[in-house]
Design brief:
Elements lengths: L5 H4 L1 E4 L3 H16 L8 E6 L2 H4 L6 H9 L12 H11 L1 E4 L2 E4 L2 H4 E3 L10 E8 L2 E12 L2 E4 L19 H11 L3 H10 L4 H22 L16 H8 L8 H9 L5 H20 L3 E4 L8 H12 L7 H19 L4 H4 L5 H15 L4 H13 L17 H20 L10 H14 L12 H4 L8
Parallel strand pairs: 2-5
Antiparallel strand pairs: 1-9, 2-6, 3-4, 6-7, 7-8
Helix pairs in contact: 2-4, 8-14, 9-12, 10-12, 12-13, 12-18, 13-16, 13-18, 14-16, 16-17, 16-18, 17-18, 17-19
The structure holds iron/sulfur cluster.
The site of iron/sulfur cluster has 13 residues, from α18.
Amino acid sequence: MDSISIFEIFKIGVGPSSSHTLGPWNAARMFVHDLDIAQTIRVEVHLYGSLSRTGKGHATDKAVLLGLMDLDPVTIDTSKIDEIIGKIQDGKALQLPGKAIDFDFNKDLIFENAMHPLHPNTLIFRAFGENGMIDEETYASTGGGFIHALAKDGDLKKPRILPHPIVEGIDLLKYTRSNQCSISDVVLKNELSIADEAQIDEQIQKLYDTMLDCIYIGSHTEGILPGGLNVSRRASAISKKLLHGVSYSGKEEWLAAIRSSARDFTTVNKWVSCFALAVNEQNASMGRVVTSPTNGAAGVIPAVLMYYLLFCEAGPTDAIRRFLFTAGEIACIFVKNATISAAVGGCQAEIGVSSAMAAGALTELLGGSPEQCLMAAEIAMEHHLGLTCDPIKGLVQVPCIERNTMGAMKAITAANLALESDASRAIVNLDTVVKTMWEVAQDMNHKYKETSEGGLAILLPVVNPYC
Ligand code: SF4
């Protein structure tokens, strides 16, 4: 657990959920990679707990089928997903790698009523041959797209050893102090033990390009989001209004137009909100996003990064890499000591963590010390403690999309507070708030852990009395 690469935190994938879409998708791919396909004539997928209760709204059903077809979430043409799923439903056949088998959506994809004792997000794949079951694998989707193959513990690879193993914030500060360096410098040393600098920069560029594409497409797409809740996309209208008719062609000219627009507080606030909305509107429509640390919370990191790139004084030339390194390491601390799964810890584990990541990373780029970075992360999480996950209709739309704007703005506020503070006088440190978040996660009623059985998810009036 002390050897997570930041590229395992930031993953390019497809929305709307990292734990309910990307994780199950990758679990299905793992299953077919080890399967004796020649012998297979039928496959069953069993979804338990939160995967069953919110799986339809989170597209878990579609994700496992795309995974069984061995399609790659990084490269799939997302505009073709509904067509592929429609063909499986209509044709009652599923194309495994190299072989088509019969598949009945209503019988072979099973939403189990029960919770599975192993994890709130458990899924089981079974394959059958002429003479009965030939393979069964159990996976837990533990948040952020991480998959734990429960049936394969004996086969686990030897753990990777990093030069600077970090479990808690205090470990990170030990290295920054002894090396007189920033948090991102420590992370770079660890990442260089896994890949060379050119490979690292290539991965960073891909992540940034995907985030920017997502913001740009989301800021130029109108209409109603899928799922039946009738949620309107808003990012596009905000972008258009803020640019007052300025014309541009393509991403770079759009960014230049934003840079030249007004910089008063309200305008900047609206741009940051626009970026976060754009990403999560794309996420809600199965668009391509970067898991950061989850898909439901994927808008916070790009929104705060764009806030820095467009509205702050230019800082280091490797700002994007430093931002993602620092943000990623803060996420690792939450993964190791608490959770980034809403099914385990509610929305504090998603939006709370993404806000803490963004706060710490922004603080480093704005010249804060490592202590101030961790203080900013602590402040951001402190004010998300107890945040519940209660998505209406099991869709990652309400409250999720707006919640990313709140996470981004809290991150900016937390960074500014930390930059104006003496971190040595902080009453609560990051490690304490991580422990507290974990305690709160365990005390939280299961209704508020991505089940859509409580809160906003059940109190929605059928007709809006305000209209
Ligand atoms: S409420 Fe929060 S944790 Fe739950 S699905 Fe929405 S963004 Fe994710």
